[in-house]
Amino acid sequence: MIPSLITGFIVLVILFSSFVTVKQGTIAVVTIFGKYRRILTPGLNFKIPLIEFIHSRISIQNRSVELEFQAVTADQANVYFKAMVLYSVNNQDEETIKNVAFKFVNEQNLMQALIRTIEGTIRAFVASKKQAEVLGLRKDIVDHVKEQIDVVLESWGYHLQDLQLNDITFDEVILTSMSRVVASNNLKAAAENEGQALLITKTKAAEADGNAIKIAANAEREAAQLRGQGIALFREEVAKGMTHAAKEMESANLDTSVILFTMWTEAIKHFAENGKGNVIFLDGSTEGMKRSMEQLMSINILDKTRDFPN
């Protein structure tokens, strides 16, 4: 009875051990006496008891690792990188899984090789650049690493999904000097902008002054022209009035010199009313009046002589 129970128990253990569950996102590698046999896909699988063994379980999900390392530029500046590497198994083909399972002894050796390969590729690229160029070459560095390392990773059964350079820094002395350069460039740009603004302001002010002077000159010219036309019209009207008055005086058998005397007195009245404090000296005596009348009459006689010569 006991031997049968023991035999039954052994049979059950062997039977249950022949079933293997593989988790989703994982591939199991089966060996027979240490030699690769086949792969098991996710789900419930069957293996030969006591002959087939699970060598390893390969995750086909994306994996990430963070890197921190130092590189030296062509002008001997130390550059410090912080990066994140995202990688995964290239595909689920049998040959790929065999490379992943047997290329490295364990996961630690894979990580060491992957990290050192990426660091070496970045160091070689940075060594050919100057410190001033490195910050602007973040995308170029990533593209260079992907181009160089994809072939190597493919031989290992992996694929580089993404490389992110999260932080690129320099020594404190270099950072200080770079800050000074940036500050001086900002000051230079500010000074240039202020100079341009001042130049524009001065130019616009000069243009405005020039336009104002031009407008004032045009206005003055038009005003002078109008004043000249007014004076000419005034003189024309005065001449017409004097001609009409002279004809009226002649028709009335009166001396036309009275017109000159009237104009003289009107002029004196105008001086007195609009002088605004100016002093005008006139001879108000009878002799002065007589002399003024004789001078006006002599002017009148002279004009007549010119109009009607003998």
Class derived from helix and strand content:
alpha+beta
* CATH architecture label name of the largest domain: 2-Layer Sandwich
Distance between the termini: 186 Å
Mean pLDDT reading: 80
Tell me the domain tally: 4
Please provide a written account of the structure.
The protein is an alpha+beta fold. The chain folds into four domains: 2-59, no CATH class; 63-170, 2-Layer Sandwich (Tetrahydropterin Synthase, Chain A), CATH 3.30.479; 180-251; 255-310, no CATH class. 61% of the residues lie in helices and 21% in strands. It is built from eight helices and eight strands. The strands form three sheets. It has a three-stranded antiparallel β-sheet with strand order 3-2-5, covered by helices on one side. The chain has a three-stranded antiparallel β-sheet with strand order 6-7-8. A two-stranded antiparallel sheet has the order 1-4. A hairpin with a 2-residue loop joins strand 2 (26-32) and strand 3 (35-40). Helix 3 runs antiparallel to helix 5. It starts with a helix and ends with a helix.
